[in-house]
């Protein structure tokens, strides 16, 4: 049975933010006997030697930017890779033709474009997840839409995917399969085990390298021929990757890609519609049918193939569906609307990482997002250290118990190192151990309802607190008191001093990567086991709407105080070496409770200070003066359905933030400048307007003198309106345009990444990142023009974005208008009429109207409508 799956592919242009394109995948998963069922628990670990002293360690929240987990954002050359929400991963596409550059020799490769990206990503301390492709609808802006190497020309048959306007190579061609296999072998020889790369996605096949070519796929009943390779030939590609890469983790889109050819190999899966719900009624595309998912959902496919436990050895990546990124964690741990049960998605897929471009605008203090990020992948803490407090011989035995509170193991054999720090905090001795972090499996796993082991949610014991033990040589270590420490070496440190450190969820975890295990004495000197005195006098000498400054009196210690831990609400938020600290990024008018603890070089921690509760200032400060009343309200233009308004600027003692526009006494929109267009009105109708100014403190002026305007009589004329942005359907929550088809945006600076609809217009604020899409998927052969009613904040924005429609993608200012001119955006609304045929836009298969903002521009545009007319 074939199933049509409507989904939107993130069409991130260039190294762009994410985007969406409608695609129907009619891929029937191969049949399988049954789900695998609950996995057997690993063998229980060894127990500590009774001769060693137990040193319990205190848990604390783990860092949000631990390596190889959490959110990845797209790589943009020259961008600050560490701005926004904490992360350690970057995602990038590359076209195959950008590496296979010779037109005559498919066996020569230019890796510079890959190396340049990897080097820049590594310079920020991050690791990359990458994919190569041959066909990408519309291109990415900096990478080609057609990335078929020219050395295939004359040897491989090319076919047209007329829905997407792409060219597909014959994936069954022996010439192609040989060239691709040779490329993959060279790819692995160069990059397998490269510390700059965390994950490689098995692309190369299909649209975006996603292993589908909808609608030209295996479901030929719709009249479209099949452009996908046979399962046997797809399996050849998968086998080539598996042979070439034995160290770097691999992922493929579906558990049933190429008939499930990856399922017996060390290859994970890549769900790039993660935790989304679609259709009517809504059904999940990640969770299985037993939890309200569709029959084509990612985890249903895994259950069908019996590979739902593949995560034990293979990573699970993908992308949070672009349409829900701005609201994905608003209802954590559950979901709402198109967001499915997010905690269940993470727990049952055993998610390690996801592309999430909108995470750049998440608050670092959002507790929902933090809970999700910590749950993803591994979340390691040291629960106990075992060693003798004083060692007088030439060796010492050290044991550590590690627990994993995440949903997946750490997938790489990074080296675990023990060390000694002296009283000055200097590491004076280190020992590498054979300890394998990959064996620290999650303590609990969530059961699928399909397993029949209990009502959802049912959690089963799986991993154990894993015990590791090594004997270390004390040769050359001077007699004295030390702090015993442990760290995990990120191999990227050999290439980049900024490499993110793998850190544990413990109070004694230091930013340098070293985890304090406790004090130890070498020789005849006893170890330091005395904690510093409790800090006193905690006070707040200053505060703002977003920060609290703290001071306290110094603690004392028998050896010396190393520093102080600052706790907000019982959770450590920072450390200080002195007696002051400023906590930033807070919410206005909110009470926060702080305590302070002192610690020494031996890892001894004092009791917490007396708590101090501080309420941040109100966001408006002390400004109580309203702006002056707007004047000169006028209407320079009107239509049958809209009224344009202008007025003179108000003044304010601090500054005017914006203006409220009222129609009949009810606010219908806001504006930051002195103009506004009210749309969606009725023809031949009188409307009365007033305008009020407001400032950042919330002070509002008196209303302007009223202005009554009568709209023009209706003119008819026909045409199709794609969207007039009148707020019905609601944007972005309804995700529908006026054709009742999908629409949405991502990576904009306003509206949580989606842009904002207000006052009858969609305003998109951008800074070299942004994507907007609106599905047409309607034959517009009866119409001559695409009409875009648009204005810019500064004018000249036509060079800041491209527009894709019906197989054509051009920078907006490069479209040709009647008479040979080109679009030029001004600060006033105008109708820009783009001839469809003259610009090569398919009217029979227009597909999706999409705009990508990745050309270095920093501004905003407002659009009143898209329509097709004569």
TrEMBL record:
PROSITE patterns xref list = FN3 (PS50853), TAT (PS51318)
The answer to whether keyword Metal-binding applies is no
What segments bear the compositional bias annotation Pro residues?
Answer: 36-48
GO CC annotations, alphabetized: membrane
- Which molecular-function annotation in GO is an example for this chain? hydrolase activity, acting on glycosyl bonds
Signal sequence interval, chain numbering: 1-33
Boundaries of each Fibronectin type-III domain copy?
531-619, 626-714
Q: What GO terms describe the biological role, i.e. biological process, of this protein? A: polysaccharide catabolic process
Ordered alphabetically, the record's keywords are:
Carbohydrate metabolism, Glycosidase, Hydrolase, Polysaccharide degradation, Signal
The answer, when asked if Lipoprotein is one of the entry's keywords, is no
Q: Quick one: where's region Disordered? A: 34-60, 616-637
The protein in question is named: Fibronectin type-III domain-containing protein
